[in-house]
Amino acid sequence: MIIVLKNGVGRTEAGVLAAELEKQGVTVDFSEGANQIVLGLVGDTTVINDEVVRANRLVEKVMRVQEPYKRANRKFHPKDTIFELPGADGKKIRIGGDSFVVIAGPCSVESREQISSIAADVKKSGAAFLRGGAFKPRTSPYSFQGMGGHGLDLLLEAKKETGLPIVTELMETSQLELFEEVDVIQVGARNMQNFALLKVLGRCRKPILLKRGMACTMTELLMAAEYIMAGGNDRIILCERGVRGFDNYARNILDLAVIPALKQKSHLPVIVDPSHATGLAWMVPAMAKAAIAAGADGIIVEVHNNPERALCDGEQSITPDAFSDLMETLRKYAALEGKVI
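and the corresponding structure tokens:
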């Protein structure tokens, strides 16, 4: 249920009304706009009498929400979610709004020299975050599984060298204590519906990059975000990374249409992963440009200094030189859409 208060109603008066509603067993979330406060009621709202609420002198209108996701719903939170993180060289990184954030780095951390070199290159080209996998979920048990804790240490060394905040994937709850210095925790496509993990991340206060499952609907993605938000963590970045299709011209099918759909349904920032979505390095620039045109808030792209010898996903990784060229192009496209890189 959503309760829109009248113009000019202050936080104190709204708080009194919220307290009365909470006595009936629901949770009330506040969303403050320029002139109005919106109360989002979560829980068993069947106990709430709509007519009684409408009769309150503070209330302008009452709406029942049919979608199963509440906290992630734009009806509950009309304004875009925007948050900031410390970046390199004392700068602030803005997620959402008029910013277009670029996250770049290798699929996997392979060595100190590799991650340090790539980190320096992507920073020079203008990336805001360094990505890299220390723990890797792989389809085959015989494929490279990542360097684990040592790989995470190498990522943190690269962070100290460049100042770039890091994004890396958490695979299970037991690993969480190792992620204390990680800036953004990634939940991969295979773990999008690992509800035990999502509940733990809801109690975590780090931003979460939540990737869409390879065969999951938009609603299922938003419900996964709802699991995290229900625990109190609302700093979530949704990521479209392609879904399974019936053709094999690319690794996956990049669902660009889901970007404006997500922006309409939810207030959370949305980014695109053109690397996993296509699986082919030569397709990445075109899909990165398309992501801007579709309204995305950023991209996460794989960059490797020697893709032919990469231990993981070399075919979809672009070189540092190609990334530098891409960044120059993206700045122009972003400016046309009113975004800033």
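(Above: one complete record from the training split.) The mean pLDDT is 94.
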